[in-house]
Design goal:
- The protein has 3 domains: about 80 residues; about 110 residues, Reverse transcriptase/Diguanylate cyclase domain (Alpha-Beta Plaits); about 90 residues, Orthogonal Bundle (Arc Repressor Mutant, subunit A).
- It is about 60% helix and about 10% strand.
- The protein contains 14 helices and 6 strands.
- Strands 1, 2, 3, 4, 5 and 6 form a 6-stranded mixed β-sheet that branches.
- Strand 2 and strand 3 form a beta hairpin.
- Helix 1 runs antiparallel to helix 4, helix 2 packs parallel to helix 4 and helix 10 crosses helix 14.
- This is Helix-turn-helix domain-containing protein.
């Protein structure tokens, strides 16, 4: 083409430039670097000049050819990146949800540094602003934890898959995520489980821990599923738990303002380690006012917060109320 342009002064034809774009796409698919390809085009241009003064049409044609070639190369690269992102997203979804062909999943996992024979722990970070693929904060986290984890976003949350033996990674991930997004975020960590199926199990535990943290009012910044195992036990028989809540705490509805204020008092008192002065401080009450409320709870429920046996029943019922969102949501 350059030879004809040099001899006739014509411009490159559209089909010639289209051919360069197609060649650029094939070069990108073959993995060639753009700088080497541009260098080869410029070398061909120098050869076409053959040591004589370069006529303007020749240089213009070379410029158009290089532009067309690089456009094709970049178009193919963008397509490859989109395809790779789609394949990675599909793999992450299959991995976290425990679906898909195990053989294919294992092959893809190996490509991303996951070994089916290892044990894995999953941590899930949630923030006020949803996480998105390609955002600067996600990139910084990935670089900070490079080599130890797989990071991905799912449903606006950031998911970290780490080797189970790397016990410090989830805590580091929580600190980094909090530093990126500021206060108010929460990270939940599942328990370590073996194999790729264990990733899905740990992920499910982390999501349940997030849900429990919301219902129980935990502020974090880090909650561990291993420390919340008693709560799934409580919720396993929802009817029995509802019966306990209504039987023990139902009479609080006769109090001034309904059950809410007295239940809040009881919850804060338990959270303060049953220390009356600390609970009063947290509620903004005098010790005398708090003592009166505890006495009111005793008289309405026939359960004395000062009695160890009654205290256990009251605390279990109060936890059940938080898990079932009672009294905001009526129970059958």
């Amino acid at each position: 083409m350059l030879g004809e342009v040099s001899a006739t002064g014509r411009r490159p034809a559209r089909e010639e430039l289209d051919a360069r774009r197609a060649l650029g796409e094939r070069a990108a698919e073959a993995g060639h670097g753009l700088s080497a390809l541009v260098g080869a085009h410029l070398a061909a241009t120098r050869a076409a000049l053959a040591g004589r003064a370069a006529p303007d049409p020749l240089l213009h044609a070379a410029e158009q050819a290089v532009d067309a070639f690089t456009e094709g190369w970049e178009r193919a690269r963008r397509l490859a990146v989109r395809q790779e992102e789609a394949a990675r997203r599909e793999f992450v979804d299959d991995l976290l949800l425990g679906r898909g062909d195990p053989g294919r999943l294992g092959e893809r996992a190996e490509d991303l540094g996951l070994r089916p024979a290892r044990t894995y722990t999953v941590a899930v970070a949630r923030a006020a602003t949803p996480y998105a693929d390609g955002s600067p904060g996600v990139g910084r986290l990935e670089r900070a934890l490079e080599g130890a984890v797989l990071l991905a976003t799912k449903e606006g949350r950031l998911v970290c898959v780490a080797p189970g033996e790397e016990e410090g990674v989830p805590a580091r991930f929580a600190r980094r995520a909090r530093a990126e997004r500021g206060p108010g975020g929460l990270v939940a960590v599942g328990r370590p489980h073996p194999g790729l199926a264990g990733v899905a199990a740990s992920y499910a535990e982390a999501l349940r821990a997030l849900d429990l943290a919301d219902r129980l009012g935990f502020e974090g910044p880090l909650v561990r599923a291993a420390e919340l195992l008693v709560f799934p036990v409580l919720t396993r028989d929802r009817d029995a738990l509802a019966d306990l809540v209504l039987s023990v705490l139902g009479p609080l509805r006769a109090g001034r303002g309904g059950a809410g204020p007295l239940l809040d008092t009881l919850t804060v008192w338990f959270d303060a380690g049953c220390v009356t002065a600390e609970a009063a401080r947290r509620l903004g009450l005098s010790v005398r006012a708090l003592t009166y409320r505890l006495e009111r709870i005793r008289s309405l429920t026939a359960h004395d917060p000062g009695n160890p046996t009654h205290r256990y029943t009251l605390q279990t019922a109060a936890l059940g109320a938080r898990l079932l969102n009672w009294p905001a949501e009526p129970l059958p």
